[in-house]
Amino acid sequence: xxxxxxxxxxxxxxxxILLLVVxxxxxxxxxxLIDNFEDGDNQTLLxxxxxxxxxxxxxxxxxxxxxxxxxxxxxPGSFSxxxxxxxxxxxxxxxxxxxxxxxxxxxxxxxxxxIGEEGEYYDLSKMESFEFWAKGSGEIYVCFKxxxxxxxxxxxxxxxxxxxxxxxxxxxxxxxxxVPEPWSEDESEGYTWSSDGVGNKVTAIHFKAxxxxxxxxDLYLDEINLxxxxxxxxxxxxxxxxxxxxxxxxxxxxxxxxxxxxxxDFEDGDNQTLLxxxxxxxxxxxxxxxxxxxxxxxxxxxxxxxxxxxxxxxxxxGNxxxxxxxxxxxxxxxxxxxxxxIGEEDEYYDLSKMESFEFWAKGSGEIYVCFKxxxxxxxxxxxxxxxxxxxxxxxxxxxxxxxxxEPEPYSDDEQAGYTWSSDGVGNKVTAIHFKAxxxxxxxxDLYLDEIxxxxxxxxxxxxxxxxxxxxxxxxxxxxxxxxxxxxNPITNIKFTVIPGKKASLKIYDAVGNLVKVLYNxxxxxxxxxxxxxxxxxxxxxxxxxxxxYRLSQNGVVLTKSVVFMK
Length: 566
Known about the structure:
Elements: H1 2-22, E1 31-35, H2 45-50, E2 55-59, E3 68-70, E4 83-84, E5 93-99, E6 109-114, E7 122-123, E8 129-137, E9 139-147, E10 155-163, E11 169-173, E12 179-182, E13 201-210, E14 216-227, E15 239-240, E16 246-247, E17 260-264, H3 274-279, E18 283-288, E19 297-299, E20 310-311, E21 320-326, E22 336-341, E23 349-350, E24 356-364, E25 366-374, E26 382-390, E27 396-400, E28 406-409, E29 428-437, E30 443-454, H4 469-472, E31 478-479, E32 491-496, E33 503-508, E34 514-521, E35 527-532, E36 545-553, E37 556-564
Antiparallel strand pairs: 1-14, 2-6, 3-5, 4-5, 5-14, 6-13, 7-13, 8-11, 8-14, 9-10, 9-13, 10-12, 15-16, 17-30, 18-22, 19-21, 20-21, 21-30, 22-29, 23-29, 24-27, 24-30, 25-26, 25-29, 26-28, 31-32, 32-35, 33-34, 33-36, 36-37
């Protein structure tokens, strides 16, 4: 073992020298943009990277049906007829109308895209979510076309049932939301979303009308993404140019924000927000109209101890918040709310760079999401920028952009003072509240989880000088020795990172080739323990030898070695 360790250290030095000489730089993007339709033709953005992926439409006509799609996109090369500026959420998008006929028992019409070249399939077991913007009328199936890997040659659908919203809404589908829909009953056990079974090999994704003869389904689509996967996770991930050299497949059109500022995931279980832990004294609290002689209440009572509302029962993913607002009749305008101060008391932060404020929520009733603003014109006045939300009955990701927020000043003469602009008042936000909207006697039930701001960083909030030294310093990012080392079959790698900042942990061989990505995302806590089972990205056992595991975050790169022995 000592000889192996000595050899390992020598190989480590050789490997590091090679990395420096070659100037190895490997970037893995955690999101894949399927299409934003700006190219205006049939080929998907993903298809242009990995092969011949394309959009198409189809109906039941091959089965003697008479369903139609308007415009008719069933002919090769015709899908661009459905793409226009008028149809998009953000620029160009797709608009089709499915008209279900009456010539067969199960009429159907759909649009879809092949992920790559015909006959290829891709392992999407690593997918965190499939996301797109949609609106319309009627109901559709989102169908993940799966191909069996057990040599039976059978295939079927993994489906998600969607009632189309009447206004543009971001639809987020996770693997847990998808259910098998095989083509025959005897295949019902074959199609499951699992790490090693059939159902992960997806050849195409379709948007299929759900209805009966005579039904009309109107569908708008835009900004279609796969999250949590990389080009490397998809089979056939590189293209070859005319010289025979392998070229990069990174998508230049993808414009996902690099900054995500976590407010809270409630896993710490106390009053302080994740953001507050980074920048100072930010904290959660509850308040009611009792100071104005009202009698509204919050259940549980969080006006003096917010941890009472935090539990795994209240969460979308782990711990979350669950409160019930009971509006009383002891005050003209009854109110009850929970909220968090972004930083220390009386400080305010410029959120003009915020792209969106996002959180998961469900419940019953209606609330205001209030961005508490402080005037910058030395008047000392302040008010709310509000977003009116009818709580969904099931867990839903709520996405609020600056354009969605309306001024709600505390008095009429302040009406002109509170606008969301790059240089005016209304950008200096001291707190964000979730406030019950209703009348005396109303009860509003609220669940919250996974709260974050996109497009901003602590520096954008004007609070860089307030950030705790032990958070932003390199000392907080650490990488432990793998245990056991040498190992077979599994070793544990512990590391510490800054929550809310993109981080990655990757395995390389002795000459600098990427073997496997163990972690690539935005951490929501500080400490992680990742297991490596000695396999590469394809699930194959690696040869015995020395491997390097590298942690990267915020410009800090830490590398250590580990020995795998068969």
